[in-house]
Amino acid sequence: MALTLVLLASITTLLMAVAYFYWLRMNFWRARGIPHDKPSYLFGSFSGVSKQYSFAEVVRSMYQRYKGTGPFCGYFFFQRPAVMALDMQLNFHFALCTQTVVPVQISKSFSTIPKNGIFLKVERI
Predict the structure, then answer these.
(1) 116: enclosing H helix or E strand
(2) How many domains does the structure of the chain reveal?
């Protein structure tokens, strides 16, 4: 009987800890006051990507919605917080940093390339 209660209490504590850390991660942008979409639990900010909407359409609508709110906005790529630069000067700064850092990273290790994320080039109209 006591072993069952200890096992049940430890499983409950473990589940509560996992739920708490997941809740902290999904409130990453809100805690910092950065504009963002409310994420879904599995797909993050890209829950609209399906047969109805493409990935580019979801990103474009997010860009149009937040382009006047500040230099960047936050989104969730699945459960991972990420940032989208909305200001052209900030995009230029990211491009300069990328040109100096990425060639060194590519020449050293090809296994880290898929971990860098997905980037979208937005041109001024």
Answers:
(1) none
(2) 1
